[in-house]
Amino acid sequence: MASSPQPPLLPTEIAAAALREHAEVAAALPPLLPTIAELATRLVETLRRDGRVLLCGNGGSAADAQHLAAELVGRFLCDRRPFPALALTTDTSILTAVANDIGYMEVFARQVLALGRPGDLLIAISTSGNSPSVLRAAEAARQQGLMVAGLTGRTGGRLRPLCDLCLCVPSEATPRIQEMHILIGHILCDVAERTLGEVER
Ligand SMILES: O=C(CO)[C@@H](O)[C@H](O)[C@H](O)[C@H](O)COP(=O)(O)O
Ligand SMILES: [Zn+2]
């Protein structure tokens, strides 16, 4: 006998489940603290020697790349010198030309090869760790002598072995992983600003 269909969840039930899941994933982050601190240190070292931070990702992770570049170039919590950071997700002429003429998977890699220099830092953001455009960016960065930091989830996917440092959020849920990525990104900005900026809160 066919089972009767479940009634749809109420908005409050969906919201409560999301809040619970978010809190559970956040509570599982402390084991990542040493890697977060290491990445923050490498970010500070990069900025201290005027290296650039390049960031890339797709969909929500493109938004994260832009959000973090904006914090670094502009300000996070206090006034200080602008930090050189660039999201590789914003120039629609470059993105459409490279996707159209070469292939979507090259959209970030091409910019890494054009703009990245040894000593720069690529922050590659992919919740699955398997987006071809992000993998190609990491490969290009390695080839060009950049340090590669991955913000991932799940197992870290094929991005993990391409990274010098990989922060893998222990969750299978893309939105929850993204929420932790922006939390980690804010921590990185906070450390950079407190270490390199004049404190004016
Ligand atoms: O924001 C979301 C889902 O929360 C989506 O836009 C999501 O970012 C896209 O599906 C991405 O293409 C997923 O790519 P990735 O994180 O696996 O590299
Ligand atoms: Zn999203």
From TrEMBL:
Gene3D superfamilies registered for this protein in UniProt: Glucose-6-phosphate isomerase like protein, domain 1
Protein residues bound to substrate: 58-60, 71, 100-101, 126-128, 131, 178
Cofactor note: Binds 1 zinc ion per subunit.
Segments forming domain SIS: 43-201
Enzyme Commission number(s): 5.3.1.28
Gene Ontology CC terms: cytoplasm
Domain of life (superkingdom): Bacteria
Family recorded in the similarity comment: Belongs to the SIS family. GmhA subfamily.
UniProt cross-references to HAMAP family, sorted A to Z: GmhA
Remaining remarks: The reaction produces a racemic mixture of D-glycero-alpha-D-manno-heptose 7-phosphate and D-glycero-beta-D-manno-heptose 7-phosphate.
Protein name: Phosphoheptose isomerase
Organism (species): Chloracidobacterium thermophilum (strain B)
